[in-house]
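=== RUN LOG ===
request id: a7f3
mode: sequence -> structure
chains: 1
length: 442
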Amino acid sequence: MLSDALGSSLTKHEQIIRFIKTLEINTKISVRQIAKELDVSEGTAYRAIKDAERQGLVSSIPKVGTIRIQAEEEKEIEDLTLKEISHIIEGEVLTGLQLVSSIAPSRFVIGCNSPEVIEKYLKKDALLIVGDLKEIQKIALEKEAHLVVAGSFRIDEEIKREAEEKKLVLISCPYDTFEAISMINRAVYDRLTDKELVHVEDIMVKNVYYMRADATVDDWYSMAHSTGHSRFPVVDQNMMVIGIVTAVDVAGVDRSASILSVMTKDVLKVEKTTLVTHLSRILVWEGFELVPVLEKGKLVGVVSRQDILNAFQVAQKQPHIGETVDNLVMSGFTLDDWQEGTKISGEITQFMINEYGTASPGTLVTIITTSAYIAVRRQIRLDSVVENLTMYHMEPVAVGNKVEVYARIIHLEKKSCAIEVSLYSKDRLMVQGLIKSRIVKK
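=== RESULT ===
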C-alpha cells in the first residue's frame, strides 16, 4: 500500500483497512474508536470493519466485541488449526474462540495414561484429547495446553474459568475419545496423501505496497524510504495493474515527473491460481524480480523470487506437496542466449531414462515442448498452448549426456505460431521437431 506520506491518495475505507492490519492480534476495536482515531464518520468505520471481517482480519464475538484476529489465509499451508480440528470433530468452542484460527497444536496427546505420564508429554500449545477426567484436564491447563473434552460430558465451571483466564482453547466434542482421535487422524492422513500443488495465492504477499497512476517520482522516494522496498506495482483507479516502477526507472529523473512517464509497462502478471512451479520457471527464464498477482484483473498481492525460494524450502519438508513432471524434468536446465531464439542447456539424468538407459520419448517431448513455450514467452511475451507436435528426427540420448536445445519461431500469425526445436548432444543433432502452438492472451 501507499506509505503514510501518500496516505492522502488512499480512500478512507482503504486507510481503515490498512490501520486494522497494523493492529496486534487480539486487539479489541470498535466503530466509535476507529471513527475517532482516523477522523472518519461512524458509517464509514462500520462498513470498513464489516469488510475487514469478510477478509478474515477481525471477528465479532458475542459478549466480547470485535477483535483483531490472524486471517485464516495467513497461516502456513501445512498447518492444521484448532478451528479446523473443531470442525472435523464437530465440536463446540467454549473458550478462546478468537484464537482458534491462528493456533496449530504443537503436538497431540491422548488422555489415556496416568497423570504422571500425561504431564511428561504435555507442553505449551499442545492439544490434549480426554474424557471426563478433571484431574488430567487441570494438568493440561497448568501446562498451558489446549483441551478437547470428548464424550459430551459436562465440563466443570472451574475448568472453563481457568481456560478463559489463561487464554486457552477449550472444545467440547460429542464423540468419545477414540472416535475423535480417529476423525482427526483421518483428516491428517487425507491431507498428507492429497498431492496438493502449491498455487501463487498460497505464498503471495497480500499486504501490497503499490503506487497510483497520479503519483510522482517524489512519491516513489517517499515510499521507498518508509517501506525499505524499491519495486512497486502501479495501478489505476480500479486497482488494475498498468506497470511497475523500480529504482532503475527513477534514477536521475526529475522528482516532479509523473510515475506514468518512467514506469515499465511490460509487466508479467499472474492469476492467484497459477502454479508456483510454473511461475518459478518464468521468473528464471525472463529475469523478473517482482510479479503482481491478480484476481478478476485486480491487484491482490505480489510474489518475488525470494517468496518462491521460501515456498520450495517448505515444500521440500512436506510429503503432501506434489511436483509436476514437467518441473522435475526441467529443474536442472538453464537458459542461455542465442541470437536466433532461445537456448536451454542441461543433462539427461537417471530420472529421465527408460529401461535401456536412454532418455525416454516422454522426457524428450517434455524438453522440446517446454523449449518451444520459452521461445514464445521470451520473443513475443505471450503464453502458448501446443496444438500439434511433429518429431521428424530422434536418436537415443544416453544418461549423463549434456544437451543443448535450440528453439526459434519460424512462422508467426495473430493467433498461432510454429517453432522449430533442435536438441544436440556433443555437437550432434539427436532430436528435432516442429511445434505448432496457439497463442493465448491473458
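=== NOTES ===
Residues 1-9, 73-78, 316-323 have pLDDT under 50 and may be disordered.
The chain is about 35% helix and 25% strand.
=== END ===
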